[in-house]
Request: fold
Amino acid sequence: MAEGAAPGLLDLLRLAGALAAVVGLVWLFGRLAQRGGMVPRSSGSLAVRERIAVSRGVQLLVVAVDGRTLLVGVTGQQVNLVADLSQPGAIAPQDAPPPVPAAAVPASPAPSLAERLAGVLRGRNA
Reply:
């Protein structure tokens, strides 16, 4: 009965040795790739501070890089700078409406869609 147990133990030791060799080779190749410049190293100057999912596949990120804080929009195809948050006044306060220049305010309000549609229907009936 002792003879039947020995091959099982020997097979287990061979398996453990092969697994250790494979893990060691993967680690060694990873280190060589970093030293050879194949894998980019993290410099620590870039950090994602906050992440918000806007919709499926669209995110807003607050990123700190080189002393600046940036609001970045990210989709599956592109990355866009939304605002540089390190500049004062980059984003208006939420409570205050945006200022409207005096030249942009119309003298009389434009007719609504309902008023224009009523005028068109009156013209057809007359």
